[in-house]
Amino acid sequence: MLTVLGAYSWVNIKFLLEGAWVTILVSVCSIVLSYIFGVILGVTRYVQIKYLSAIVGFVIDIIRNLPLILIIFFTYFGLPHLGFKPDPIWASVIAMAVFEAAMVAEIVRAGIVSIPTGQMEGARANGLSYWQALWYIVLPQAIRNMIPAIVSQFISLVKDTSLATIIVLPDLMNHAQIIYGQNTNYTIPMFLALAVMYFIVCYSLSLFSKYLEKRIGGGNKKGKADEVVQDASDA
Amino acid sequence: MISIFQNYGGELLTGLGQTLLCSIIALIFALIIGSAFAIMETMPNKFARVVARVYIEVFRNIPLLVITMFFYVVIPMYIVKISGFASGTVGLTLYSSAFIAETVRSGIQSVDPGQMEGARSTGLSYWQSMRYIILPQAFRYVIPPLGNQFINLVKNSSVLAFVAGFDLMYQANVIASDSLQSMSTYMCVGVLYLILTLPLSYYMRHLEKKLA
To answer: Where does the ABC transmembrane type-1 domain start and stop, copy by copy (chain A) (predicted)?
Structure first.
């Protein structure tokens, strides 16, 4: 019993927390990047610019349908061919941002489609230009509808950072593996710690999503469109 | 790229087969387990609801890799020796079942409560009305999201590469280190994954449009 408790010595906890810090750092960077690019790509796909929208849509579909591990490999082994050799942290941030941007783009597109066309028509009739109507009228409503889907996508993102251990990203998963690799007695305590730490981060994110939903999405009953958007994001 | 297909066709096909096998096994069991927990979550019994909620939240909020590694590392150490493929499939099943449970639950709850009341008042028991009235309507409604879950499941099966599951991703790493052509190998594997997921994804979008 005492040997097992040794797993939670201060040195190990500190090592785990260092890993957790890398996990959070990579997650936050890729959340910010993927949100920005996701909204841009989603709008691009929606507005039907000749050729551009079709190409963007095709690329989004390709990326969405590939496993994340493959995209991590592409960035880690592919970028050096283009003359940029990323370290594991950069490679994972880029890979996660590319993958999640495609996911967010799809959610954004579905969110815009779910807004009744009357909103756009009304805005245009009031004299707003197409882009003004999109920016001031349609997008704010769409984003309000999309909050649950986007947050659950970001929860997946946090969980998926663990996959980057395959390119030796020094994250929570990797550090736990190092600890139980040195002392097999620590295996179960380490898995318990992993589960608890990931659970705390992800569950608090999902509570935050419920809070946001209540706070901003007030008048919006869970309708058919929301459910579809929600399910498109669960990964 | 073509040389990779010529030289390592056998390995790639084996990998594809293992990926498909794992995905189908995991899909069947995840559907059964997920539906069971979804029904539990909509039951009037409070205890059942709490159990289902805890199960779903736990497996939804822990990374797939942690669950899979648990079955790969801990179970053989203390309980029973299982192969990488088995541990990967079990992990994938449990992880996906939580998401499928959420999807099916939203389907069940989207069925008008009047349907249940009507069924009960015509003399059907709770389980009969669930089986004959509620579930058929719920499942028709959740087919597109379930399809998306299946696509995710196929993609997530690449986690088998971590546990020597001999799936497509594992073979990719083997071939990449053997042929020293990592980029073209991963491109080949990407094409194979797309062959599995892309048609399904377009079909589901078509279905979504048709039902909406």
So the answer is: 20-209
From CA A235, how far away is CA B156, in angstroms rounded?
9
Contact A227 B110 (CB under 8 A): yes
Nearest to B66 among A62, A198, A203 (CB): A198
Selected for mutation to probe chain A from B186, B188, B189, B191 (highest A CB count within 10 Å) is: B186
Residues A33-70: tens digit of each pLDDT: 999 999 999 999 888 788 888 899 899 999 999 999 99
Q: A158: buried, middle or exposed (CB in 10 Å: 19+, 13-18, 0-12)?
A: buried
Fold of the B18-167 domain:
MetI-like fold (1.10.3720)
Name the phi and psi angles at B44, rounded to 5: -70, -25
The domain segmentation of chain B, as residue ranges, is: 18-167
Query: From B157, which residue of chain A is nearest by alpha-carbon distance?
Result: A67
Output the average pLDDT for chain A: 85
A-interface mutation test, from B150, B155, B201, most A Cβ less than 10 A away? B155
Chain B positions in Cβ-Cβ contact with residue A102 (cut-off 8 Å): none
Q: Which of A86, A212, A233 is nearest to A156 (CA)?
A: A233
User: What distance in Å separates the CA atoms of residue B103 and residue B36, rounded to the nearest whole number?
Assistant: 12
pLDDT digits (tens, 9 = 90+) for A108-148: 998 998 888 898 899 989 989 888 898 899 988 888 888 88
Distance separating alpha carbons of residues B56 and B75, to the nearest angstrom: 22
Between positions 49 and 88 of B, the ones with CB within 8 A of A are: 57-58, 60-66, 69-70, 73-74, 77
CA pair distance B212, B203, nearest whole angstrom: 14
Q: What is the rounded CA–CA span in Å between residue B211 and residue A209? A: 28
Nearest to A44 by CA among A30, A31, A33, A59: A59
Question: Which of 1.10.1040.50, 1.10.3720.10, 2.40.50.140, 3.40.50.10490 would CATH assign to domain A2-233?
Answer: 1.10.3720.10
B13 in contact with chain A, both atoms CB, cutoff 8 A: no
Distance CA B94, CA B44 (A): 25
Question: How far is the C-alpha of B159 from the C-alpha of B166, rounded, in Å?
Answer: 11
Distances (CA, A) of A232 to A15, A148, A226, B54: 36, 11, 10, 23
